[in-house]
Automatic annotation (TrEMBL):
Gene3D superfamilies: 4.10.1240.30, Cytochrome c1, transmembrane anchor, C-terminal, Laminin, ntegrin, alpha v. Chain A, domain 3, von Willebrand factor, type A domain. Belongs to the integrin beta chain family. It is found in: Cell membrane. This is Integrin beta. One of its GO terms (biological process) is integrin-mediated signaling pathway. GO terms for cellular component: cell surface; focal adhesion; integrin complex. It is a single-pass type I membrane protein. SUPFAM superfamilies: EGF/Laminin (SSF57196), Integrin beta tail domain (SSF69687), Integrin domains (SSF69179), Plexin repeat (SSF103575), vWA-like (SSF53300). Residues 1-202, 610-1030 form the Integrin beta subunit VWA domain. The keyword RNA-binding does not apply.
């Protein structure tokens, strides 16, 4: 009334500000604790009188009050405050927001725009709809009706229709059947009032009827007759209340329960007889399906199924006493047959008039018809197509055989279209130009025949004679060129083979220099006088880098030398030069020195200067500490195998540092079960000492066993707000049962109890004087958390403590449970957690939770410190001073203290707490019954769920890579740190791999890892020491070798090298930076004293020592040797790698040093002779093995193992033929006795083996008998024969004759067609030429005196004489 709001008006409240706002709880900062009551407190001057007495209202209070008084709020705020107020729009129904200018000059537009925005949308709300279901649907301004209570973009006078559906799922308490529901738009006074009466009582059981029918005659005067049934008075029972409880039922009543009077079976054995009436039992326990019938003779679950449902489901029928009673529209034993004939209709005829409809499918009675609707028949389509052909042709762009008048008269239902429809019968015909005309016929909605014809015909494309002839000629030319290329390749290969043979003979030649008068220098190259022409393979390498023109020029020059035909060679070279892939392939085969190996030496990738850096690269790398090693410019960090190479029968390096990782199990106690006087051991080993080299992964096994009698500590943390009062009573009665149930799992069990409500601060708890001490009837003062009963094995004491605890109350829905969880976990001593136990915290509530940041609502800004703050009486002392903990704080603390949390919450809160499971390791969620009656089962099930899975975690593993692999309970090992479905007493093995990729900062090489299961105390301690420094560079060694004599007293001797003091330098610190370069020092860098070339031009002289440079900048490949004379990257290649790769050999100063098992200039020759063995003999004893291949020395033998020879196999086959035949199923020429005596080495098998000499024999039936002979490991001859012969299929003479005839006819027809094609083309050309001449002819009628008329022809007797 003070503001002047009108009752039926649109109420707008324009709120204008340039700042934020205070809300509930902020008043505490000013000492105001009394909550805002939401009432009017204005004096006669319009001043708010309780501003200093009452707190600010909350957002929900404003939203409720605005909705209650139908007020629309418009927040007119500055741009910087827009985001804050924008968050209020979804909270306060019917509110809007607008941006206010700095001087509010846009206020008029802002009011108008927001008013239009508010009235342009309508949102219906329902008041007083508890326990009712209200659904609102509307099309709004569209065409599709949707389930929504909103409609937007409305204009003045627009109307929108809502469809409102009211429903109730269950009846309310008696006396509450009448209810008034209000449906109204947000912000408006207009209301639809719905007076609802919920029908929860029939007229026949009304109070009046009950009174009238009391002690009714139908109930023998012993009960009330209600809705056709008797409700018996005590102690009577039965259908007509004619039996008395406690008295023996008369025999005649039992006989009323017997269907077959010849037996004594009551209720057919399917129920119990109660006063002459059968009470039928379930058909199967727990299914809620009961037998029916007077004598329980019916089983309504035995009917036929359709679609997986009895009688097809309730929509099709119901099962009554084992028989399906079908609904209207369905028939059949299972109601699976629909009586609807619409699926059978075709052209408005049932099954096209050629069949009957059964169960929605057509059964064709006319044998001529078929198809899903009996719409198809043999020959019908062609007849109808011919009938409509004339109309189809006359309605095209070019008319057909009918005239225009006939077409209009006879074809009124024929239409020409661009494309005919596809879902009808398609017809086709040919027009005069032999083009296809497509048309179709169908029946319209009035069952009239309709014909559609495609306007444009489809004409076949004419053959392109020129293309055909050109293709044939191109094919002939291509085949010819292919033959020439093949010939050229063969010649090239032959030339190449001869050239390499010449090179090999040249290498093996021994020139006697003393007898050769023209001998000059071994570096002089000789040219084979017989090989004067470059082979194509030699040209191939430079060709790949030349342009096309240069390729052709070079090849033409060679062609001239080889005297090849100019024309054909030009064609060949043009094609050849365009084949880039061939050139690339050849260039790869004939490698150049610019190629780099694909398998690089990892030790040389980076220029290392210390031993520690070297051993950290790879386990393949080692460091040489020889004092003289630098003299040859060898890298000190190199492969271990390179350091061990022999040079002049001495290893290249004598002092090699190559440490290995070591792993020692320093504590490895066996796994044991727990007992009252001893702790269980569940993990083995318990401690490992590991010295780990970088990039050297170490693997060890870890075994976890789920021990029996493992100590369990269960702390029950309960929400004792008023809504949990009945849960508390039930928990007190079930406490002993929890302990008894857990004793079946473990003998060592303790139980504790704690409670919580919320922070005793507004707005969480009412601090009004009349509420703070007694927030509800029978309630005690609210508190944050209380440790009521520390962990103890006495379950009776637990029950008494829970009984003594009182409930309390608070204001808001969420509770302060996180405060309680944090204190219950952090206060180990106060709660009584044991060190080596399974710690379980059961958190029970029916509400949500507050978390970090919510404390600001109560003026609490100090963050939660995660420490214990319990008073001696168990109260949380910092509840009103510290904020709630965050979810991550709870997760970290639970992991740190090995506590498994079980969230036992009501069903409506389960989804919220389920989201905490992946965040808080080892947590579970269970649904708590409304009165906590299922708490025993919940504790047991969640304990088993937690203990049945193990998840390994690693602590303090920064910069380390730890991998777990396990088979768990399967057969295949997988990379995972989890295993589930474990039972008590079962064990699981984990394979743990620890690896470090790089060294940490100095001083952090030692650390301790803990590998442990989530939620358990047991762990494996790994004392790790990273090997990032060699012993020779330890601080002690550095100090002992300071100013060493090997460094001329000017440096520290470290790992075979000198680290020089300033200003000295050089390998031995014998040069001074201040004295400049000494000439005699430079002379020490010259290999050939007859020259002045320092380090062979491949390096720089540094104090008498050559520092070699890279072969090619950026490759990290350096020259080596005392004077940089060696190139370790110029050795021959094999398979794309220098010296065949590190597996075969290494390059040492230009020569390949092959590993064991390989030889040759490029280590490409394998010394393994296994590939040359045949029947235990090297090359069948007929040749020698060279590079894993046989070279046959006996000219008679050949083959990869010299196992083949001319006519040898046939002689052996004939020798063993008789034994092979007699050992088959059918005996051969030998008798049975001869076969057993002479052929003991012969065996019949289903299939002879491959890879050895095979023989064959043709029997009298023309079938092949296959057998083979070979030598076993003992050198004994063995013969195997295939049991079943292989017979060739019979020749089909008739098919061959007919095929030959058909082939001759086919090719004859092809030739005739080709001839006809050419003659037709020729005739058309002649006809065209004739017509052209006829058109150009000019007849002069004046010269012929007897010319009369153009249509008459006369013979001129004089004309022939002219």
């Amino acid at each position: 009334g003070q503001i002047g709001w009108r009752t039926g008006s649109r109420r707008l409240l324009l709120f204008s500000t340039d700042s934020g706002f205070h809300y509930a709880g902020d008043g505490k900062l000013g000492g105001i604790l009394q909550a805002n009551d939401g009432n009017c407190h204005l004096d006669s001057n319009g001043m708010y009188t309780d501003s200093s007495n009452k707190d600010y209202p909350s957002l929900s209070q404003i939203a409720v009050k605005a909705k209650e008084n139908n007020v629309n709020l418009v927040f007119a705020v500055t741009d910087e405050q827009k985001d804050i107020y924008h968050k209020l729009i979804p909270l306060i129904a019917g509110s809007e927001i607008g941006v206010l200018d700095s001087d509010s000059q846009n206020i008029v537009k802002l009011v108008r725009d927001n008013y239009l925005a508010i009235i342009s949308k309508v949102e219906l709300i329902v008041e007083n709809s508890d326990n009712m279901e209200v659904k609102i649907r509307t099309k709004c301004k569209g065409t599709i009706e949707k389930e929504t209570n909103r409609c937007e973009n409305l204009s003045l006078a627009d109307q929108v229709v809502f469809s409102v559906t009211l429903g109730v799922k269950s009846c309310p308490p008696k006396g509450q059947e009448m209810k008034t529901i209000k449906i109204k738009p947000v912000g408006l006074h207009d209301t639809l009032t719905v007076n609802v009466r919920i029908k929860c009582q029939c007229d026949c059981d009304s109070d009046q009827k009950m009174m009238e029918n009391k002690n009714h005659a139908n109930c023998n005067g012993n009960g009330t007759f209600v809705c056709g049934m008797c409700v018996c008075n005590e102690p009577y029972f039965g259908v007509k209340c004619d039996c008395v409880k406690g008295e023996v039922t008369p025999p005649e009543k039992d006989r009323e329960c017997i269907q077959d009077k010849s037996t004594t079976t009551l209720c057919n054995g399917r129920g119990e007889c109660s006063c002459g009436r059968c009470l039928c039992r379930e058909t199967q326990k727990g299914t809620n399906n009961y037998y029916t019938g007077k004598y329980c003779e019916c089983d309504d679950t035995k009917c036929s199924y359709y679609g997986g449902l009895i009688c097809g489901g309730l929509s099709r029928g119901q099962c009554i006493c084992g028989v399906c009673n079908c609904n209207s529209g369905f028939t059949g034993d299972s109601c699976g047959c629909s009586t609807d004939k619409s699926p059978c209709m075709y052209n408005d005829l049932e099954c096209n008039g050629a069949g009957v409809c059964e169960c929605g499918k057509c059964k064709c009675t006319n044998p001529k018809y078929f198809g899903s609707h009996c719409q198809e028949c043999e020959g019908c389509d062609q007849e109808k197509c011919r009938a409509h052909q004339g109309c189809a042709l006359c309605n095209r762009v070019t008319p057909g055989v009918l005239t225009q008048e006939q077409c209009k008269t006879e074809c009124p239902r024929t239409t020409a279209v661009n494309t005919i429809r596809k879902d009808t019968t398609r017809c086709e015909t040919l027009d005069k130009e032999d083009c296809f005309v497509y048309f179709t016929y169908f029946y319209d909605a009035d069952n009239n025949i309709r014909v559609e014809v495609q306007r444009e015909p489809v004409c076949p494309t004419k053959p392109n004679v020129g293309a055909i002839v050109g293709g044939v000629l191109a094919a002939i030319l291509l085949i010819g060129i292919g033959i020439l290329i093949a010939w050229k390749v063969l010649i090239t290969l032959k030339d190449r083979r001869e050239y390499f043979a010449f090179l090999k003979s040249l290498e093996n030649a021994k020139w006697e220099t003393s007898g050769n008068p023209i001998y000059k220098n071994p570096k002089v190259q000789y040219k084979n006088p017989m090989h004067t022409i470059l082979s194509t393979s030699q040209l191939l390498r430079p060709l790949t880098t030349l342009h096309l023109g240069k390729r052709v020029t070079l090849l033409l020059r060679v062609a001239g030398e080889r005297m090849v035909s100019t024309v054909w060679f030009l064609c060949f070279t043009t094609i050849f030069c365009s084949l880039n892939p061939i050139g690339k392939l050849s260039a790869q085969d004939l490698r150049t020195d610019t190629l780099t190996p694909t398998q690089e030496n990892p030790c040389l990738k980076e220029k290392t200067t210390t031993c520690g850096e070297c051993i950290a690269i790879s386990t393949l790398c080692a460091f040489c500490t020889d004092a003289e090693y630098d003299a040859n410019n060898y890298p000190r960090c190199d492969l271990l195998t390179t350091h061990q190479k022999l040079i002049n029968n001495k290893p290249r390096c004598k002092d090699i540092v190559n440490p290995s990782s070591t792993l020692v199990k320093s504590r490895d106690d066996r796994l044991i079960d727990g007992d009252r006087d001893r702790y269980a051991v569940q993990i083995r080993p318990q401690q490992i000492d590991l010295e780990l080299r970088p990039n050297d992964p170490q693997t060890f096994n870890l075994t976890f066993r789920l021990a029996e009698n493992y100590p369990v500590d269960l702390y029950y943390l309960m929400d004792l707000s008023n809504s949990m009062a009945d849960d508390k009573e039930k928990l007190a009665s079930l406490g002993v049962k929890i302990a008894e149930d857990m004793s079946t799992i473990t003998k060592n069990f303790k139980l504790g109890f704690g409670s919580f409500v919320d922070k005793v601060v507004m707005p969480y708890v009412s601090t009004a004087p009349n509420k703070i001490n007694s927030p509800c009837p029978g309630c005690e003062k609210a508190y944050g958390f209380r440790n009521v009963h520390p962990l103890d094995p006495n379950a009776t004491l637990f029950r008494d403590k829970v009984n003594a605890a009182k409930v309390s109350g608070n204001l808001d829905a969420p509770e302060g449970g996180f405060d309680a969880i944090m204190q219950a976990i952090a206060c180990e001593t106060e709660i009584g957690w044991r060190n080596r136990s399974r710690r379980m915290l059961l958190f029970s509530t029916d509400a949500g939770f507050h978390y970090a940041g919510d404390g600001k609502l109560g003026g609490i800004i100090q963050p939660n410190d995660g420490n214990c703050h319990l008073s001696p009486d168990g109260m949380y002392t910092e509840s009103s001073n510290q904020d709630y903990p965050s979810i991550s704080q709870v997760a970290v603390k639970a992991k740190e203290k090995n506590v498994n949390i079980i969230f036992a919450v009501t069903n409506d809160q389960k989804n919220i707490y389920d989201q905490l499971k992946p965040i808080i390791a080892g947590s579970e969620t269970g649904v708590l019954a409304s009165d906590s009656q299922n708490v025993v089962k919940l504790v047991r099930d969640n304990y088993l769920a937690i203990t049945s899975k193990v998840e390994m975690i690693v602590e303090n593993s920064d910069n380390l890579e730890v991998k777990f692999r396990t088979k768990c309970k399967g057969t295949e090992e997988k990379e995972t740190n989890k295993c589930e479905n474990l039972a008590i007493g079962e064990s699981v093995d984990f394979s743990v791999t620890v690896e470090v990729k790089s060294c940490p900062p100095k001083g952090e090489e030692e650390r301790t890892l803990r590998i442990k299961p989530v939620g358990l105390y047991d762990d494996l301690t790994v004392k790790l020491k990273l090997m990032c420094q060699c012993d020779c560079e330890s601080p002690k060694q550095m100090e002992d070798n300071k100013n060493h004599e090997k460094c001329n007293g000017n440096g520290t001797y470290v790992c075979g090298m000198c680290v020089c003091n300033e200003p000295y330098f050089g390998d031995y610190c014998d040069c001074d930076k201040g004295t400049g370069t000494i000439a005699d020092k430079e002379s020490e860098c010259i290999q050939d004293k007859n020259t002045t070339i320092i380090c062979n031009g491949r390096g720089e002289c540094n104090c008498g020592t050559c520092t070699c440079r890279e072969r090619q900048k950026g490759t990290n490949h350096f020259y080596t040797g005392r004077y940089c004379e060696c190139d370790d990257y110029s050795c021959p290649y094999y398979a794309g790698l220098i010296c065949g790769g590190l597996g075969r050999g290494q390059c040492d100063c230009g020569n390949c040093k092959c590993n064991a098992g390989f030889n040759g200039t490029n280590c490409g020759c394998n010394t393994d002779n296994s590939t040359c063995m045949y029947n235990g003999l090297l090359c069948n004893d007929k040749g020698t093995c060279e590079c894993g291949k046989c070279t046959c020395t006996d000219p008679k033998y050949f083959g990869p193992q010299c196992q083949e020879c001319d006519n040898c196999g046939q002689e052996q086959c004939r020798t063993h033929q008789d034994c092979a035949l007699c050992n088959r199923t059918n005996a051969g020429v030998l008798t049975k006795e001869q076969c057993e005596k002479e052929c003991s080495h012969t065996t019949a098998v289903d299939k002879i083996r491959n890879g050895i000499t095979n023989c064959e024999y043709v029997d009298q039936n023309g079938c092949f008998i296959y057998f083979t002979y070979f030598y076993d490991d003992d050198g004994t001859l063995r013969v195997e024969v295939q049991k079943e012969p292989e017979c060739p299929p019979e020749v089909n003479v008739l098919a061959i004759v007919l095929g030959v005839i058909a082939g001759i006819v086919f090719f004859g027809i092809i030739l005739l067609l080709i001839w006809k094609l050419f003659t037709t083309i020729s005739d058309k050309r002649e006809l065209a030429r004739f017509e052209k001449e006829a058109m150009n002819a000019r007849w002069d009628t004046g010269e012929n005196p007897i010319y009369k008329k153009a249509t008459s022809t006369y013979q001129n007797p004089v004309y022939g004489k002219k």
